[in-house]
Amino acid sequence: MITKNQIKLIQSLAFKKNRFSHQLFVVEGKKNVAELLNSDYQVDSLFATNDWINENPTRNVVKVSNTELARMSNQKNPNEVLALVKIKTHSTPSETGITVVLDGINDPGNMGTIIRMCDWFGVNTIVCSTNTVDNYNPKVVQSAMGSIFRVAIIYTDLLKYLKAVKSPIYGAFLDGKNVKTSSFPKSLHLVMGNEANGITKEICPLITNKVKIENIGKNTESLNVAVATSILLHEICS
Questions:
Q1: Tens digit of pLDDT for each residue in 105-136?
Q2: Residues 57, 115: contact at Cβ < 8 Å?
Q3: What 3-state DSSP class applies to 236?
Q4: Chain-centre distance for alpha carbon 212
Q5: Rounded alpha-carbon distances, angstroms, from residue 232 to 61, 139, 196, 213, 214
Q6: Least buried of 49, 68, 165, 226, by fewest C-beta within 10 Å?
Q7: How far, in Å, are 72, 148, 189 from residue 3 at the CA level?
Q8: Integer Cα distance of 199 and 179 in angstroms
């Protein structure tokens, strides 16, 4: 049986300061929880309705009603199960392979989609500026659709980090070389900038290779950062 204090704790984890104070975050829904249980993340506790429990009889779980699940949930339509998960820290990555670097990404939906795209294209590491949206934000976790458990996400001082990088650093710029006619090494860093302001002025001088996605239609000024990341990763990885 769930207690009022447990519900209060779960509700409080909608806020970043509480997530890091308790070192816990929330994962919701059958698909996301299934991905979680197949990962190396440590589950603190599981709360589920009878339907989920009947399908997963071997799991140690607290049974809740649909009403109780709705009280805990960040979703409009809660889906049978909710997990409290211990926050996992990742070490600084090696420079082997492709590393995506996020410079001030603000929107949780964009962040979640970028995590999914990295998972899709086999990118194992994302390095983020400290002002990039928290990857344990409930909206990020939900939109990442389980990919958050397979991609290492690290927050650091980007300027200091990129100054120490030895592999080429790519970034998207309007005056860059057409990505379609560019060639790419096996190991590189790809910097994606803030939705409104792009890559910060301090980071720009560190970009060794500027690329662009050709605006064929000429009818719109810019691409959504998650869409742009997907296109660039397709070209780099193909």
A1: 999 999 999 999 999 999 999 999 999 999 99
A2: no
A3: helix
A4: 23
A5: 42, 24, 19, 8, 11
A6: 165
A7: 11, 29, 46
A8: 17
